What does this fold into?
Amino acid sequence: MYGSNGMRDIKRIQTYEEAKLRYEQIKPIRGRAGDVRPLGNRKNDDYRIAKRINPLNNTTSYQCILYRTPVIEYKPDGDVEINMGGYRSTANRTFIEKVLYLSCYSKNGSSVLCLGNKAEVVLHNTKTTVIRRLEVHPFVWELALGEPVYETQMNKKKANNVRAKYGEFEKYLKAMINLREETRTEGVMGNKYAYACWKRMTFAHSEFTEAGVTEVESKGFPVELMANDQPEESKHSNFYKAALGIVLAIQGGHSVRFFKGSEMHLSSESIMPKFREIVYRHHSDEVFEKVLLPVGKAPSKKYNSWVKREV
It folds into this structure.
């Protein structure tokens, strides 16, 4: 079973006392190895509760287990530990919602838990998050322990300074788009009265082979072809090669020999964003910075793959 399938019979558990009582009320399944106590339907032991005794201090806690992961653990001091077990799954989030009766949802690839009173916390994928109920507000929780959350953000001022190094090429690229752009109107499939207009550019297969631009990718793009500070006698030729390279990068960085036919078509609106991506990837150490986010804010992962990873 997966996701919420089979979890509908799970009743909420919000305190250590409730977890202890629920454990004692549920009888173990006979004939099973170990102490197996299902949280919901007794025919489904994917969701169960277990007692854990800490050998270091001999304290007893109770774990709500999803498959093999102790997702929620109730401590005698009132703390509730949440462990995603390395899975950002719908099943994990649904299990947390059913047991704790708190909203848990996905945002920007992260799991976010609503603590009540508009407070939220991002659940770490591999490390434990600890929450605690506020006594004065029985249905409101607070974060007791959590990992700091960082986001890769672009410094716009630095980004503009970096892009200025390729300002002449940027003007060249915009001029090429204006010259070669064409608007095409096509009927929408299944509706003879609807039409879609899109701006496209057409490139001949021979352009790439004659210019010697046959393979390129966004990562490792030859940005020196776009630089302002290069010999004037080769600048125009290099700008043309760089423009063709951007076209190939938009198509996934494949070799030009894999494209069938004599022409290649692509949206003209994709050219400039790809140019900026290539520049920012190359200068990622200058352009991007890690920023500590407020508690509960889920990080955007838009630029994560653009940043050079530390070895």
Summary: The chain has a mean pLDDT of 88. Residues 232-250 form the longest helix (19 residues).
